[in-house]
Amino acid sequence: MEKMMQNMMKHYPMMIGMGFMLVVIALIVGAFNAANAAAYYAVDKAVRDASLELAQVRSGIESTVVWLPYFKFLGVGMILAGITMALGVIATGLQKMATEVLGKAPPKPRSAMLMRAWMMLGMLVILVGFIVSLGVAGTASSVFSNPIIAIDAAESGSAILAGLGSVHAAASWLEAFKFVGVGFLFMGIINGLASILYALNLQRQALPQVVQKQGAARSTAPAMAGD
Amino acid sequence: MMEKMQQTMMKRYGMFAWIGLLIVLIAFLFSLQVASANGDFFSASKAAREGAAAGSALVGANVTRHALAWWVPAFKFAGLGIMLGAITMALGLIATTLRSLGGDLMAKWPAELNPGLPEKPRAARIFPVLIMAGWMVLILGLVIAWATTGLVAGYWDHSIASELNQAATGSALLQALGTIQATGPWLAVLRFLGMGLLFTAITLALTVVVRTLQHQERSLKRFIQARSA
Predict the structure, then answer these.
(1) Is the dihedral of CA B195, B197, B201, B202 positive or negative?
(2) Crossing angle for the helix pair A159-226 and A52-102, to the nearest 10 degrees
(3) Is A221 on the interface with B (CB under 8 A)?
(4) CA B101 to CA B52: how far, in whole Å?
(5) Which residue in A192, A118, A133 sits closest to A166, CA to CA?
(6) Nearest alpha-carbon partner for A201 in A69, A107, A81
(7) Could you tell me the sign of the dihedral formed by the alpha carbons of A22, A28, A34, A36, in that order?
(8) pTM of the prediction?
(9) What chain B residue is nearest to A160 in terms of C-alpha separation?
(10) Which of B104, B109, B38, B28 lies closest to B67 in space, CA to CA?
């Protein structure tokens, strides 16, 4: 399991590349959505509000507005996870170096384990947010495929208002939820840095011991040669 | 004195990270309240929403969804900012540890080969100032958001159809709306200015780490050359 984790950590450039790609795709989709919105709002309000055909355009715009930010944050999350993985690789390298110098493996810090746990938790939160946003985008699409006059005239308890309520409610908590994911990923980075600090402090403590050992080896070498 | 205080504070990066995460989680709890208010408000028909009188449950829900959505983003960003500050502190601590490690190692070299510790790079003095500046900007934004929440709540605590939409030019209601619309965008800019300062602090802290490693590499090369000569 440990070995698998360490192997996975080494793939951090791929993770960062994939995250960057998602952000670029989000930018392209956002640009298309902006063009759609510009075309939609170029029509006068009376026609916009009554047209069933334009309602389909609006349905696309509104549903994209719902899911796109979470898709973008999935990309940002992957980049942050990639940074955490890179820190993990550095910490593992330092740990290996310490093992070679000391001749025995030093104890692993708790932060090394926590780093992975926070990273995975953060990615999970962002992924769940994205999946939920896809569901909400479906609801938004069905609500806004009705002309605005139909939405405005909807009675309490109708399917349209139930959908509209759930879209607005989900948008509010999803917005904060993705930042919880980012917060967890930041905790992963902080634990990664703590692991590096631990390894460096370990080297600092082991330094006198290593120098002493080398000095002893050097002083015995001429004596042995003299024998 | 100042240097010592900074070092002590930097060692507490874990505590700052937890405080930041706690703030982000509290912000999430408030967002659930906004979600509930949004659900209540939009479950009523448009006519009922707009016609509801001040003091009614619908107007109450409208006040909650606007007032909380006004200050919660500033609060959430303050939490994230504190976490970014903690990351910068950990990087600063790594740079300090690398410097001490290099110092300890070079102390074992013969005096004529020991180049001594270099002067602290300027970036090392600037990044703690940037953390503080970033935090101050984010806290300022939060304080302004809290201070103006009353205005937002007061504005939305009216009937949309009979009071807000009927407000005449120069009325207190329209003045309040003007202030809210004018304050919102620059509060958002203030949040990103704070985050920008913190990201710059991270970049500078990374520069210090890189410079420290470069200095150690140069010293080690000089040492090996001198020994082999």
Answers:
(1) positive
(2) 20
(3) no
(4) 69
(5) A133
(6) A107
(7) negative
(8) 0.88
(9) B43
(10) B38
Instruction: Note whether A185 and A77 are within 8 A (CB).
Output: yes
ipTM: 0.88
Per residue of chain B (229 residues), give pLDDT as tens: 677 787 788 889 999 999 999 999 999 999 999 999 999 999 899 999 999 999 899 999 999 999 999 999 999 999 999 999 999 999 999 998 888 888 887 777 777 777 777 778 888 889 999 999 999 999 999 999 999 999 999 999 999 999 999 999 999 999 999 999 999 999 999 999 999 999 999 999 998 888 888 887 777 777 777 777 7
DSSP B128: H
Q: Does A73 touch chain B (CB under 8 A)?
A: no
Measured CA distances, A141 to A157, B74, B94, B178 (Å): 19, 30, 50, 33
Q: What is the DSSP letter of B159?
A: -
DSSP-derived letter for residue B11 is T
Using the Cβ of A10 and the Cβ atoms of chain B, whether some distance falls under 8 Å is answered with no
Helix spans in A10-154 (H): 12-41, 45-50, 52-102, 110-144, 148-153
Interatomic CA distance for residues B27 and B36, integer angstroms: 14
* Cβ–Cβ < 8 Å for A156, B45: yes
Question: Token pair for residue A87?
Answer: 């820190």
Centroid of chain to Cα B174:
32
Terminal-residue alpha carbon distance, chain B: 43
Residue B94 is inside which H or E element, if any?
A: helix B57-107
Residue B114 contacts residue B216 (beta carbons within 8 Å): no
Residue A90 in tokens? 């550095």
The residues, ordered by sequence, that sit 6+ positions from A226 with a Cβ below 8 Å of its Cβ are: none
Q: Are A172 and B34 in contact (CB under 8 A)?
A: yes
The chain B residue lying nearest A182, using CA atoms, is B80
**CA distance between the termini of chain A:** 50
| Per-residue tokens: A199 | 């390894």
Cα A115 to Cα A9, A112, A192, B57, B198: the distances in Å are 11, 5, 5, 46, 22
Q: What is the distance in angstroms between the Cα of B170 and the nearest Cα belonging to chain A?
A: 28
The CA distance from B177 to B170, in Å, is: 11
